[in-house]
Amino acid sequence: MITDMTEGNIPKTLAAFTFPMLVSVMFQQIYNIADSMIAGRFVGEGALAAIGASYPITMLFMAVAVGCNIGCSVVISQLFGGRRFGELKTAVTTTLLSSLGLSLLLTGAGLPLCGLLLEGLNTPGNIFADAGTYLGIYTGGLAFLFLYNVCTGIFTALGDSRTPLYFLIGSSVGNILLDLLLVTVIPLGVAGVAWATFIAQGAACVLSGLTLFRRLRQLPAGEPHQLFSLEMLGRIARVAVPSILQQSFISVGNLCVQVLINGYGSAAIAGYSAAVKLNTFAITSMTTLGNGVSSFTAQNLGAGKPERVRRGLWTGVVLAGAVSLLFFGACFFGSRELIGLFLERGSREAAEVGRQFLRIVAPFYPVIAVKLMADGVLRGAGAMGSFMVATFTDLILRVILAYILSPVMGLAGIWSAWPAGWIVAMVLSGVFYFSGVWKRKWTVY
Question: Which of 356, 361, 431, 441 is CA-nearest to residue 393?
Fold first, then answer.
């Protein structure tokens, strides 16, 4: 269902739009968590550590895919809000073709480099082979990852947050069933976890692509449109490239932090792997609400209605604040039970590492929630410079503090760098929003 967010009650419209998105990302994170849970419980602590060791590298690939998602979503939202349907269809096909090409390029470059990347992260020898197996299979499926993320971004830009939800529910359930089949019935170990993700994501990619083209035919024909346009690619790249750089920079920072964690051994890696999956669940849920605010902002600015954006932001802050408090309660007070889901009973050292991470980081979820909502407005308005400054400051500070504090405080010093970066970034995003830069310099794509 295509939704016009330029009319009607703002809190009701935004809540109805973002709720399916939130449920979608929750299902996505649940099946990501299921991978690690099944590996840790049925294969062992070493398997969980192997997946955790490759996680920052897979997140680097994901960062590029998400950047493509954001770039096309902002541009298509504005074109939809302005009823420029011919350009909109050109933007869709241009994004799909360019994303496919980029994914194939990264697959070709990434497959032969998997081992070198893991060596560069100081991956312990006892988990190196399993980590390489998981990373190689994941890299082989990058085309599915990219195209699925782009299709999701296009659906969101058109105000349709329900269709991605349906595909994600099916993909999540399928992924978990395949995990169980390929790990417990057919004992493929870590490779089974990777193949389950590959197959489930591939099916979701194909089905979402077919549905997208059927949905586009429902739009008015309008003026003729091109299959591929360099000019349109440039317009998309103005948002996508900064978003890719931002997402990639975060992943590179996580790689730097992973090097520190890997030095503490496989038990620390396993505990961090469990905890960071839960943390990613929380952050991704709030980021998704920020993406909803971004689409809302872009549609209304495209329609020439900037006055609706301010109330949209505060609606987003309320929604994300509520979500952040739920995750805080679960991760802080239920850290023992949640980490226990990933590990066997004998993995006491790993479990304590995971609980320590959550107890330090979870109280600051409301802080990052506010930042992500302000970022949604900045990104939707095309104020990418301000958006990147706030985000890069967070990451640079987080990495620097991790390296400064870890020799003194150990792993607790690494975890403490997260809240410090979030606080500074929230202040910066708030300053940029209240400065009105998004109103003065918003960009028409």
Answer: 431
User: Distances in Å between the alpha carbon of 176 and those of 28, 163, 201?
Assistant: 11, 20, 12
Residues of the chain short of pLDDT 50, as ranges, are none
Q: Which residues contact 405 (CB under 8 A, 6 or more apart)?
A: 412, 413, 414, 416, 417
pLDDT at 195: 94
Question: Which residue in 2, 292, 35, 310 sits closest to 162, CA to CA?
Answer: 2
What pLDDT is attached to residue 2?
Answer: 58
Residue-wise DSSP of 72-96 = HHHHHHHHHHTT-HHHHHHHHHHHH
For residue 271, CA distances in Å to 48, 154, 361 come to 9, 36, 14
Residue identified by tokens 């993320």 is: 149
Model-level pTM?
0.71
Side-chain-facing half-sphere of 303: CA atoms under 13 Å: 18
- Continuous H helices in 181-265: 190-216, 230-262
* pLDDT tens digits along 405-422: 999 999 999 999 999 999
Sign, CA dihedral 267-268-270-275, equals: positive
How far is 425 from 444, CA to CA, in rounded Å?
26
The total number of residues shown for the chain amounts to 445
Tokens 């192997």 sit on residue: 50
Cα dihedral 162→164→167→170 (10° resolution): -70
Q: What is the pLDDT of residue 346?
A: 60
